[in-house]
Design brief:
By secondary structure, this protein is an all-alpha fold. The radius of gyration is 15 Å and the shape is elongated. The protein starts with 5 loop residues before the first helix and ends in a 7-residue tail after the last helix.
């Protein structure tokens, strides 16, 4: 079994959030009701934002990897 570091787990979680957010936004583009915009922004946008913030935090908070 391969060992995964905390950074890899955070990046994987960020990728999953981004992928789910993109799927939600793509589905909302096919849905032609006013509530689709709210779902597009609220759920899709929130998941995209969470994925982006977690990814940036994972890359910045990585312990000294270059030494």
């Amino acid at each position: 079994m391969m060992s995964t570091s905390r950074t890899e787990k955070r990046i994987r979680f960020a990728g999953i959030c981004l992928a789910i957010g993109l799927v939600i936004e793509a589905l909302c583009l096919l849905w032609a009701t006013p509530i689709a915009f709210i779902v597009f922004v609220a759920m899709g946008g929130l998941l995209m934002l969470i994925g982006l913030v977690v990814y940036l935090y994972a890359t910045v908070s990585d312990p000294v990897a270059g030494d």
